[in-house]
Amino acid sequence: MGFLKFFKEEFQVIRERDPAIHSPLEVLLYPSFRVMLKYRRAHKLYLKKHYFLARWISQRAARKTGIEIHPGATIGKGLFIDHGSGVIIGETAVIGDNVTLYQGVTLGGTGKETGKRHPTLCDNVMVSAGAKILGSFTIGENSKIGAGSVVLREVPPNCTVVGVPGRIVKRNDVRVTWNTMDQVHLPDPVFDDIETLKKENTELTNRVLELERELRFIKKEK
C-alpha cells in the first residue's frame, strides 16, 4: 500500500470513529494517527530484517505518543487506538481489521511461551481501557473485552468478557462492531451474584428477627 493511500485511510478511520473530532486538522495531532504511520514504516523494515532501524523508529514513536507497538506485530486495516497512553502491542501480536483499543491496553505474553507469544485479535474486536490480554491465543471476531479485565485464555467470536481473570458473560450471534463501543454497560455475573446474596441475607436476617420476637412473645405468655 502506498503511503498516501494509507495516510488517507488512517485519517478517515479517526474522523469517523472519534466523536471528539471537531475539525479535520485535529486528526494530525492524534497519537494513534502518528504512531500508526511510524509503525507501518518500521514494520516494513522489520520484514526486511533491518531490526535495529525498525526498533529505533518504534521506540521514538513510543516516547512521543505513549503507545508502544513492536515493529514485528501484524496489524490489519482500520485499527483505532483511542487516547492511547500506555498501550503495548507485542512482537508476535496479530490484529485483524477494524479493531479498537483504548488507553492502557496490553497485548502481551506470559513469559512462559516461545515463538508465537502474543494474542491474535480477529476483526471488529474492542478492548476497553486498562484490559490485559496475555498469551498466544485468539480473541474471536466481534468480541468485547471489558475495562480492566485480564484475559488469559481463548475467547470465541461474538462474546463479551469481563473480570479478573476474564470470564465470558455474553455469547450470541449479534454482530458487535465499532458502532457499539460501549465500555461501561457490560454484564457482570459476580456483581449480580453478590447482590442476590445480599438480598437473601437481608431476608434471612429479617426472618430471624421475626422469630426472636415470636419467641419473646411466647415466653411472656407463659
Automatic annotation (TrEMBL):
GO terms for molecular function: serine O-acetyltransferase activity. It comes from the Bacteria. NCBIfam families: cysE, EPS_EpsC. Residues 194-221 form a coiled coil. One of its GO terms (biological process) is cysteine biosynthetic process from serine. Its EC number is 2.3.1.30. This is Serine acetyltransferase. It catalyses: L-serine + acetyl-CoA = O-acetyl-L-serine + CoA. Keywords: Acyltransferase, Amino-acid biosynthesis, Coiled coil, Cysteine biosynthesis, Transferase. Pathway: Amino-acid biosynthesis; L-cysteine biosynthesis; L-cysteine from L-serine: step 1/2. Belongs to the transferase hexapeptide repeat family. One of its GO terms (cellular component) is cytoplasm. The keyword Amino-acid biosynthesis applies. The keyword RNA-binding does not apply. Pfam families: Hexapep (PF00132). InterPro entries: Hexapep, LbH_SAT, Ser_AcTrfase_N_sf, Ser_O-AcTrfase, Serine_acetyltransferase, Trimer_LpxA-like_sf.
